[in-house]
Structure formats: structure tokens, C-alpha cells
Amino acid sequence: MDYQTIREYDRFEKGAANGNKSTAVLQKQLEDSTSRIIVTTIQKLDVFITKNPAHPIRDKHIVLIFDECHRSQFGDMHTRMVGGTIKKGEKTVKVNRYFRNYHIFGFTGTPIFSVNASSGGNPNLKTTAQAFGGEPNEKGENVLPLHTYTIVDAINDGNVLPFRIDYINTIKQKENSKDKQVTAIDTEEALASPERISEVVKYVLEHFDQKTMRNSYYSLKGQRVNEFNSMFAVSSIPACKKYYLEFKKQLAQTHRDLTIATIFSFAQNEEDSADGILDDESFDTDELDQNSRDFLEMAIDDYNKIFKTNFDASSKGFQDYYKDLSDKVKKRKVDLLIVVNMFLTGFDATTLNTLWVDKNLKMHGLIQAFSRTNRILNSVKTYGNIVCFRDLEEATNDAIKLFGDKNASGIVLLKSYDDYYYGYVDEKGRKQKGYEERIAELVQKYPLGQPIIGEQNKKDFIILLQYSSASEHSNCVRPLCR
Q1: Hey, how many other C-beta atoms are within 10 angstroms of the C-beta on 177?
Q2: Per-residue pLDDT tens over the stretch 152-204
Q3: What is the rounded CA–CA span in Å between residue 94 and residue 89?
Q4: CA–CA separation, 319 vs 1, rounded Å?
Q5: Distance between terminal CA atoms of the chain?
Q6: 87 beta partners
Q7: Global confidence as pTM
């Protein structure tokens, strides 16, 4: 995230912000009056605070800005900065705020509300509003949000695109199964089976050109190019290994010219957490088990051979690999990037238009992951493609209701094929005509072979014809394998 932020500042003014790779460098920057904007992580800042309890920076005016603030502002690190209480064993200890003269701002597209807050932790620090204002915190402070701007607002304003989702059924549930625990185990085994993974990869390769629009040309930085690129979000490192090898196998068998890559590092919980927040994957690869470390080395070596680079899985080499991979994805030099959690939050590539999903997502993580696809580029890219190989329809609807509003699905998601073809009833109870009915009306009012007489009739014909041709396929559910 800090690398992405530095790049954004550089776009505004080269060298405007200072990055750092260690707490020691951060401390030097805080002590240097010429370092006006410092980009760092909350972890490095917390280490600095712990090691320097009486540093002069405490009394200086500091402005703290946290991006993705739903991820990191609900634990002891936040409390040590701004004060409050910390649980130590059975005791609750009051902590004085470290910074005495500060302003704090938090930015997030997926705030934590009481309805989706975790059950544990500090009861006075559970929601984004409690951490940054909007409802009384433990000090009695009540500051309203500076600004609220939802995904619905962003789509309506043309700042991001809506999503088009395909739900692909990849397993057939056992009928009359009463034991939910046994069913869950069977489902996980089925999801990880080589047969299913092979079928999913086959589906992706068969539909890759269609989804990434390989036959559509557009101008990018003065060059005429075709196609977009995509990411594949998987549930775990073991799943990532299986998919990467299967893609390599099928690409070789079919002689397809697609460039694939993968990246992962150690994370405490690879699957989605209880509140839906995707856990951070650090740049520390030392905690990977030996098998995963060896696999990562192999995947990076594949990348080195393709791009004539020299990266490795060491801490320094991995960070450089991450940065180079980020750049290659942005420049469309990687067609398909397989990830576990990395790149699913905070990464923006306007040429990325499709996310293939074989991972349980909900709430924050779902909206964050889906939003990798809906960045504005040009008139060719009109929506973000989501292809789900798990049943995420209910989770998607719940997330849109929470972070948009309960009637937002028609704005955030394109309608289904059947809705566009046969018509549907919108969120306000109004019947919307489908393609079939509009074409019938068009033919009835303006029979083929007969001239349209009168200026108003011509205008009405154009309007009706425009509506009749505005149908578009969106959500679909069809079986992949039985």
C-alpha cells in the first residue's frame, strides 16, 4: 500500500513524499524538517512510538492520514497513538495519547458499522465512527464524518464502473444432506479436487478472450492495443499452487500465448476473516513453510525467464518482485495474475477488467476485491467483469446493501440476461419492459417496409429503437461440471 501511495504522490509532484523501509529511516524522516509528507505503515509508526516514548515529535503538530482505515484502527496500535484503554490480561489499562497536537483522518470505501463489527476487542473501538468520530468514543468526543461518498455515488458520477457478475456452478450439492458439518467438509474437498480445478482452468481459458475483450481495440498512451488483463483470487496458498501448475499445464497443451504470474506471502488467515476483511500479506517471506517458499522461488524464476529479470523470494528480492509485478500488470504485460490476498486491496490498474474468484468473500473483502476491476479507462471498458466459481450472490447483495444502500443493486450490478430480455420489476415496484416486449412494440407501431410519416413519429421511433437495443447480458448461472 505504501508503494502505491508513493506512486500517486509522484504523479502529482516527483519526490513530494518520502517512503521508508525501516523504522530507523522513519525516525530520521520525522526528525528532518524537510520531510513534509511521510508515507509509512501503521506497524512502523507503532514501533517508533514504543521505542521513543519521550521523542520531541510528540509535541509537534502532526496530521495523520490513514488509508483503508477499516483495516488497522481497532487495536492497541491506534490506542497508543491517540489514547484510550488497552486490555492487558484481565486488567484494563488507560493509555495516554502519544501525539499531543494532532489531526487524524481516515479514508475507506468500506467502513465498519455496528452491524458488521467483530464481536471481540475493545467495546469502545469497534466501528470506524468510534475510531474517527461520528458517534461518541470513550472520551465523549463526537465528530461527524468529514465526507460520505458511497460506491453508488461513484458509479452515478462516472468515477467507477458497475459490475457484471457471472455465477458459475462448479459443484453439485448432495441431495437430502442433513449433516451440515459433513457437507462442509465434503464441499471443501470437492473445491480443492484436481478434477474441479482442471475444469475451472479449462473454463477460464475458453472464456478468457471473451471476458478480456481480445477482439476490441482501443488507444492506450498513443498506441492501438486490444484486450484487458485479469486477476484470479484463490482461497489459500495450496490452492494457488494447484491453479498455477494447472494453468501452465493447459497453456502448454493448447499452445496458448498467455503470460501468467503469481504472488503470495505468509498471512495469519488466508481465508476470509469473520468480518470479511482480507488479512494483510506482508513482504516477509521467512514465515512461509519450506514447500511454499520453494514454490514461490519457482514461480519467480518463471517470471525472471519471461521478463529477463533477477528477483528471488528473499525479503529484499520479494519487495522488488512485488513492485516490478505491479508495474507489469499495469502495463498489460501480465495477462493473468493469481493471488491469495495480495493485490486485492489498494491496487489500481485501469487495464484490468476481470476478476475470476474461487474464494469466499464478503463485506469489506468482497467490495475491495471486486473493485480491482471497475476503474475507468475508456469507452470500450464499460463495466468490471466478475466471474465467481463459488456461490457469492447473497454475500454480494449483502455487501452492496451495507456499503451503498438497500436499493443500490440495480446501480452497482448490471441486470441479468433474463431481466433485460423479458423485463423486470425495479426496486420501486415499477415494471420495466424487456427486449422482447420492446421489439414487439416496435414492429407493431412501425411495420417493416412501411415509411414513417411525420416528424414526431420519427422522433418516437428513434427513442423506442434506442431502448430496444439497450439490452446487455449480466448475471448468469450455468453449470460448469456435474
Answers
A1: 11
A2: 888 888 999 999 999 998 765 555 544 444 344 457 778 889 999 999 999 99
A3: 13
A4: 12
A5: 41
A6: 92
A7: 0.74
